[in-house]
Amino acid sequence: MLVLVVDSSTPAVTAALAEVTDRGVVMRAERRAVDAKAHGELLAPAVDAVLGEGGAHPRELGAIVAGLGPGPFTGLRVGLVTAASMGQTLGIPTYGVCSLDALGQADATGRVLAATDARRKEIYWAVYEAGARVTEPDVDLPGAVAERVAALGVGAAVGEGAHRYADVLGLPVRDEPRYPPAAALVGLAAERIRAKLPGERLTPLYLRRPDAVAAAGRKPVLR
């Protein structure tokens, strides 16, 4: 089954085409561009590009996998709206995966911290052991995370959030992955895809209120 993979939970805009079979997952094409301010402009062309490179028409897709975050409000919703709209238009199921879980699949000895940049000098984070999540996704100041992971016996970190605040976290940071790998995202959804489970509502993991909020009321006019 051909599966489209999208993730926009970080500054990296990712689109990929994968083939999920009973024997495993084969990546046919993948595009990634890093620009925190251009998710809306970059994702649709990336989807077109991976379909073209993989020799697939949208109507040949059997499912869509999307990274649910956590991530900043504006960028994250680009990927989820794209996935949900395509799923509805094509009549195919959509499956969500926590984007941190894809980072947490990185091979590491012992426990690893997966962290992405949450802006406001904070990080989204969770701890993993052998790919299994040990803590629930959260958002905190790097200093607070450093205290938590020290108590949990974490020995390494992955993700661009870990790179950005490596001096505060005090952990060895692996070069890769910096962003949620498409292969890990589809791999985490592969069992659901093979079982042809019903599609899921793509509920974003914001973990906090959006940066932009509606005005509470009209401002008084000074004369």
From TrEMBL:
Keyword Repeat tagged: no
EC class (word): transferase
EC number, as in UniProt: 2.3.1.234
Keyword match Transferase: yes
Keywords, alphabetical: Acyltransferase, Transferase
Transmembrane segments: none
Domain named Gcp-like: residues: 36-134
Gene Ontology MF term list: tRNA N(6)-L-threonylcarbamoyladenine synthase activity
CDD domains linked: ASKHA_NBD_TsaB
Superkingdom of the organism of origin: Bacteria
Annotated Pfam families: TsaD
NCBIfam families noted in UniProt: T6A_YeaZ
Name of the protein described by the UniProt record: tRNA (Adenosine(37)-N6)-threonylcarbamoyltransferase complex dimerization subunit type 1 TsaB
Gene responsible for this protein: tsaB
